């Protein structure tokens, strides 16, 4: 950033800080959301910010420099707060840009030499623009962090491992399987296999919209890893289109037991663990025999 | 020299790997185990790797090899207690230990051996 002569601006801001602050807060009324708490908060931030700006202006007008660290920190805190409260970027940036009007007005009043006035205005413009851009950037960063966190949470939420029966786990997959997700799925399934001492895991792909070679490979990897742990896998919920796709792609699923529905897979799993489901008429509930 | 103990349980041999496997140790184990299978006329080998938390391709191949050698000597091999992280690593390395039986823990592994050699 080229050097801009900010001496005049620094002098005017320092000398008339209270007036500028009063004008600024006045001007903010139009863009502020209703609420007493926000008003108090915004006044506090405005006062702190203007104080810090005035302080930093005494050294130079380079908002990216070391002397402006305190100002940037205040702005970071403010933007983060705004982003989390759901304000728009425009509302957040307008807060900073609304400082222009009172500063310009004050400069016009105090500086009579047109040459000096132009220089001071340019300096003020540079400073406030710099701060405004920094606000937007900080705002954006916070929003991105929120999105990243939500993605992570979604990833964990979308891969539940449920215990269907003693030693039988089910893993209903919903949504597209990519490498990241496979990793999470595989880890949570294997952890659960150890925890539940499961002998059989049913991977249900009813909710997986498409199966391509990559997804099939991910599935095979999961099955292979489960086998290494000593658990068998059954893949269920293969829809007709997916069966066609798998064959057309030449994916070899011959090493894996596949069933069309979760119910079929469950019956197979029960049979392997030595359990059996019978109709009500045939089966004698344990409670009646115990009572007799 | 450091050695991995091989215990005999009836017709089966039990190997519990509790130290970090380095290459020499793995080779010694292969040697010892094949000799013990012949000497004890073992029908099954159970390898417990539940305390192993690092594997590389060499160890993976060694396990495969042990299984192959045991089969030639008429003994079944069951690998038990593999940790999730180890399983994922082996799969990512492309080693699926085809031909090696696996079980979740020693108890299930023993049941499997008993069933297989009955």
List the helices and strands and how they pair.
The complex is a heterodimer of chains A (292) and B (118).
Chain A: H1 7-15, H2 17-28, H3 36-57, H4 69-85, H5 89-97, H6 100-110, H7 114-157, E1 162-165, E2 168-174, H8 179-196, E3 200-207, H9 213-228, E4 232-236, H10 240-249, E5 257-258, H11 262-273, H12 286-291
Parallel strand pairs in A: 2-3, 3-4, 4-5
Antiparallel strand pairs in A: 1-2
Helix pairs in contact in A: 2-3, 2-6, 3-4, 4-7, 5-7, 6-7, 8-9
Chain B: E1 6-9, E2 12-16, H1 23-40, E3 44-48, H2 57-72, E4 76-80, H3 84-92, E5 101-103, H4 106-117
Parallel strand pairs in B: 2-3, 3-4, 4-5
Antiparallel strand pairs in B: 1-2
Helix pairs in contact in B: 1-2
Give your account of this protein's structure:
The complex is a heterodimer of chains A (292) and B (118). In chain A, 64% of the residues lie in helices and 9% in strands. Chain A is α/β, with parallel strands linked by helices and 292 residues long. Chain A folds into two domains: 7-155, Globin-like, CATH 1.10.490; 162-274, 2-Layer Sandwich (Transcription Regulator spoIIAA). In chain A, helix 9 (213-228) links the parallel strand 3 (200-207) and strand 4 (232-236). The relative contact order of chain A is 0.08. Chain B has 118 residues and is an alpha/beta fold. Chain B has one domain: STAS domain (Transcription Regulator spoIIAA, 2-Layer Sandwich). In chain B, helix 1 runs parallel beside helix 2. The longest helix of chain B is centred in the first third of the chain and has 18 residues, at 23-40. The radius of gyration of chain B is 13 Å and the shape is globular. The N and C termini of chain B lie far apart (37 Å). The mean pLDDT of chain B is 89. Chain A binds chain B through residues 183, 186-187, 190-191, 193-194, 197-199, 221, 224-231, and chain B through 79-80, 82-84, 86-88, 90-92, 96-97, 102-105, 108-109.
